[in-house]
Design brief:
Elements lengths: L2 E7 L5 H14 L4 E3 L4 H11 L7 H15 L3 H7 L7 E4 L5 H10 L2 E7 L7 H12 L4 E5 L3 H21 L2
Parallel strand pairs: 1-3, 1-4, 2-3, 4-5
């Protein structure tokens, strides 16, 4: 069963960059890793059929995602992330936003580790509330990182090592 490393944080806090580095570190350690944003299928559909991108109208994309969840179930994006993952050791998910996603990963993955990207950026009140609501459920955050890119790489090696040791002890 695949292990999940997911990133949480405000829009623009560096989740995608951090996810890329996490995947690089894991690959250097010999693991089979894929980066699978929950929003990837949504963005592909929106761009192809609605000519939307995330920078033009985030609100419409969020509404579109809600409609897809309503039509196909709240697990649609998690199921797409987990699809065809049997050959992987890890999936890095750089955009977990809801407690339901975390709970679905817990049920369907060997382990779920969360890294918070805590860089303070200008964003909306809704974005801040969403993050605080997610954290209010007591999700187990393995690391909180608020640093520049040079420190980020060093810190992520230590975090990935910690995750690897934890997972090794649970085998």
């Amino acid at each position: 069963m695949v292990r999940i490393i997911t990133l949480i944080g405000l829009n623009g806090a560096g989740k995608s960059t951090t996810g890329d580095i996490v995947a690089q570190v894991l690959r250097k350690s010999g693991y089979k890793v894929d980066i699978r944003p929950l929003a990837r299928p949504l963005k592909l559909l929106a761009h192809k059929y609605c000519d939307l991108n995330k920078h033009e109208n985030r609100f419409l994309l969020e509404e579109f995602a809600e409609e897809l969840r309503y039509l196909f179930g709240h697990d649609i994006f998690v199921n797409l992330v987990l699809e065809n993952s049997s050959e992987l050791d890890y999936i890095v998910v750089p955009d977990m936003r809801f407690i339901e996603e975390f709970n679905l990963f817990l049920v369907n993955a060997q382990s779920v580790d969360i890294i918070e990207c805590a860089r303070n950026v200008e964003t909306t009140v809704d974005d801040r509330c969403r993050l605080e609501r997610l954290k209010s459920f007591g999700i187990p955050i393995i690391a909180t990182l608020d640093c520049d890119r040079s420190e980020l790489v060093t810190n992520l090696y230590a975090v990935v090592s910690q995750i690897d040791e934890k997972n090794a002890s649970h085998r």
